């Protein structure tokens, strides 16, 4: 029986790049150490933040290997997102991850011949799950990017009935009403990870306690403080901390697309060199980076 134990905050890690767009593997051990010391217990490799949809399969495998190796000293649970590629490559990556010592998988849907209904989506995830039958497999719901808009409570119920190692979803949507229905549809050994950083507190009030958010890389302790405040029924504190996090996020959003702004923010906040985004995305301008830095100082998030 496949067991899935990851819970709580799971940062989707950046893929560090050098200025010539080659992957900077050397920085990964220090990056893993930084997260582990901040209280993080699990990471997602290859998500939207990790830009694996833009990388060669061979490079994706090397990044996986680097994180699995880093986990040996930090004890991090390594989840890998294998989708965003032709199906043959997705299945190859899933099988590779199982052999490489990864702890769990996440998969996007097919992004070109998109599934049109619950049954088609379950069939796709089932193929991925069968390629790595000993690993927990979760589905990555991100309709803003994938344009796959299928009812998630119905999908979760059908996937659970058909796929033995199906263990939950990453729910990247602001629709907390649907999110609450998903949570109700899941079994005890499954988990739902929210993918909306600005809704951490309200989601926690609904019982959604796990999340995969880019900004957990930048502000892991602030995110944990929000969850702790909700747990202690300190609604006023949870609201104030959520407002602080949301303002920090809004500081970035006005300056460009999600990954380029967050890579810049990560360097400002942590000092870890994650480099430019992978092509075709472009780094933000130096002036934009300075504006983010100044606003984060004004919010007293950095010194």
Automatic annotation (TrEMBL):
Keyword Cytoplasm: yes
Any Pfam family hit: DHDPS
Record key words, sorted: Carbohydrate metabolism, Cytoplasm, Lyase, Schiff base
InterPro entries for this protein: DapA-like (IPR002220)
Main location per the UniProt record: cytoplasm
GO terms of molecular function: N-acetylneuraminate lyase activity
Enzyme superclass (EC): lyase
This enzyme's EC code(s): 4.1.3.3
Cell location: Cytoplasm
SMART domains registered for this protein in UniProt: DHDPS (SM01130)
Reaction catalysis annotation: aceneuramate = aldehydo-N-acetyl-D-mannosamine + pyruvate
GO cellular component, one term: cytoplasm
Coiled coil ranges: none
Highest taxon of the lineage: Eukaryota
Pathway: Amino-sugar metabolism; N-acetylneuraminate degradation
KW Lyase (keyword) present: yes
PANTHER family xref list: DIHYDRODIPICOLINATE SYNTHASE, N-ACETYLNEURAMINATE LYASE
Family that this chain belongs to: Belongs to the DapA family. NanA subfamily.
Name of the molecule in the record: N-acetylneuraminate lyase
Organism: Parnassius apollo (Apollo butterfly)
């Amino acid at each position: 029986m496949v067991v899935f134990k990851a819970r709580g905050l799971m940062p989707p890690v950046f893929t560090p790049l050098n200025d010539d767009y080659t992957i900077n593997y050397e920085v990964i051990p220090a990056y893993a150490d930084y997260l582990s010391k901040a209280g993080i217990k699990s990471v997602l490799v290859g998500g939207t933040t990790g830009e694996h949809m833009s990388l060669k399969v061979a490079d994706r495998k090397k990044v996986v290997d680097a994180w699995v190796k880093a986990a040996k000293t930090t004890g991090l649970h390594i989840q890998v997102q294998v989708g965003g590629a032709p199906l043959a490559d997705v299945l190859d990556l899933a099988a590779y991850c199982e052999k490489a010592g990864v702890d769990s998988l996440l998969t996007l849907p097919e992004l070109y011949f998109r599934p049109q209904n619950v049954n088609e989506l379950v069939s796709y995830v089932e193929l991925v799950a069968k390629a790595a039958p000993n690993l927990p497999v979760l589905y990555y719901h991100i309709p803003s990017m994938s344009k796959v808009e299928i009812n998630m409570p119905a999908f979760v119920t059908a996937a659970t009935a058909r796929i033995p190692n199906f263990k939950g979803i990453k729910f990247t949507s602001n629709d907390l009403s649907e999110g609450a229905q998903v949570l109700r549809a899941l079994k005890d050994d499954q988990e739902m990870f929210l993918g909306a950083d600005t809704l951490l507190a309200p989601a926690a009030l609904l019982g959604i306690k796990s999340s995969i958010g880019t900004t957990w890389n930048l502000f892991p302790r602030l995110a944990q403080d929000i969850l702790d405040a909700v747990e202690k029924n300190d609604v006023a504190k949870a609201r104030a901390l959520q407002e602080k996090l949301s303002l920090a996020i809004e500081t970035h959003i006005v300056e460009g697309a999600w990954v380029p702004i967050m890579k810049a923010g990560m360097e400002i906040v942590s000092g870890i060199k994650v480099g430019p985004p992978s092509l075709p995305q472009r780094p933000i301008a130096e002036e934009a980076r300075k504006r983010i830095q100044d606003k984060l100082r004004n919010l007293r998030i950095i010194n």
